[in-house]
Amino acid sequence: MQKTILITGATDGIGLETSKALVDLGHKLLLHGRNPAKLEAVSKAFSSLTAGADTENYVADLSDMAEVKALAKAVAEKHAKLDVLINNAGVYSAPEPITKDGLDVRFAVNTIAPYLLTKRLLPLIESSGRVINLSSAAQAPVDPQALVGRVRLPDGAAYAQSKLALTMWSRSMALSLSDDSPAIIAVNPRSMLGSKMVKEAYGVAGGDLRIGADILCRAALSDEFADASGRYFDNDTGQFASPHPDALNTPKREAIVRVIEAVLAEIIQ
Ligand SMILES: NC(=O)c1ccc[n+]([C@@H]2O[C@H](COP(=O)([O-])OP(=O)(O)OC[C@H]3O[C@@H](n4cnc5c(N)ncnc54)[C@H](OP(=O)(O)O)[C@@H]3O)[C@@H](O)[C@H]2O)c1
């Protein structure tokens, strides 16, 4: 059966490869990108590669929470129901690491934007649906002052903290929902896959992006992930695994969620 799937960061790397695979499987893809021309080129390429490709384009800079909010609104205006949300967009380094909201861009794009988007779109996602959050093997204890933009961190530290913060809220949100709610699952797609992020951050070619696309398609669609809400899948080992211990620590998790909520309350009305 055709599913309606929103994927962020569909314009490059793992997101692009995953979108291509899901379009090939006949699903309806709501493709998100920040660059309108790049996004348009992606959907045009899908149309010429796959007969009957069913896609829609959504533009938003996820470092800007007002645009995240507008993205959720635009999706909700067109769709009463979503089956899957894949929070894939992510950033490791940027020429200007401070966003217009005064946040570190890693925490904004990798942690807070997917939290806000998920919160806003959850009412559209059926109980059998899923939210797949792109975590990472890079997970480091989160400094709340860095999360709110008051402490500046080097790229690697900001990235690893943002990914643990995402993994923490994923579990908290999953556990806060009733049994007949969508599953919220954090997935490390496999370390060092050959995207522009990995090339820029580590200066290596990296592995086959289809490995990341395969696991995201499985996480989004297959029965093996149906009862995985709140869990962390580590594709470095190919199994569900323990995330960083802080993601299993309820008081620490709840403290991070409170910080995210406080940041959002300040930024968006
Ligand atoms: N590659 C790996 O080995 C690996 C390992 C673990 C986790 N991950 C995670 O996997 C996800 C995909 O990463 P990737 O490796 O495929 O990297 P990538 O090729 O750099 O793709 C990142 C995607 O996110 C989008 N993006 C970045 N900043 C954005 C912003 N401010 N607003 C909206 N979209 C934005 C990019 O848009 P543009 O196309 O416009 O640049 C691109 O579509 C990330 O969450 C990453 O942390 C990757």
SSE order: EHEHEHEHEHHEHHEEH
**Total E-strand runs:** 8
Helix content: 40-55%
Q: What share of the residues does DSSP label as strand, in percent?
A: 15-25%
> Which molecules other than protein and nucleic acid are bound?
NADP nicotinamide-adenine-dinucleotide phosphate
Shape: globular
How confident overall, as mean pLDDT? Answer: 97
Low-confidence stretches: none
Strand order, sheet with most strands: 3-2-1-4-5-6-7-8
Give the radius of gyration.
17 Å
What class, by secondary structure content? alpha/beta
Largest sheet: 8 strands, mixed
Distance between the termini: 38 Å
User: How many H/I helical runs?
Assistant: 9
Plain-language structure description:
- This protein has 269 residues and is an alpha/beta fold.
- Helices cover 45% and strands 16% of the residues.
- It is built from nine helices and eight strands.
- The protein has helices at 13-24, 36-49, 65-78, 105-121, 144-147, 155-176, 196-202, 209-221, 250-267, and strands spanning 4-7, 28-33, 54-59, 82-87, 125-134, 183-188, 232-234, 239-241.
- An eight-stranded mixed β-sheet has the order 3-2-1-4-5-6-7-8, sandwiched between helices.
- Strand 1 (4-7), helix 1 and strand 2 (28-33) form a beta-alpha-beta unit.
- Helix 3 packs parallel to helix 4, helix 4 runs parallel beside helix 6 and helix 6 (155-176) crosses helix 9.
- The radius of gyration is 17 Å and the shape is globular.
- The relative contact order is 0.14.
- The structure holds NADP nicotinamide-adenine-dinucleotide phosphate.
- The site of NADP nicotinamide-adenine-dinucleotide phosphate (NAP) has 29 residues, from helix 1 and helix 7.
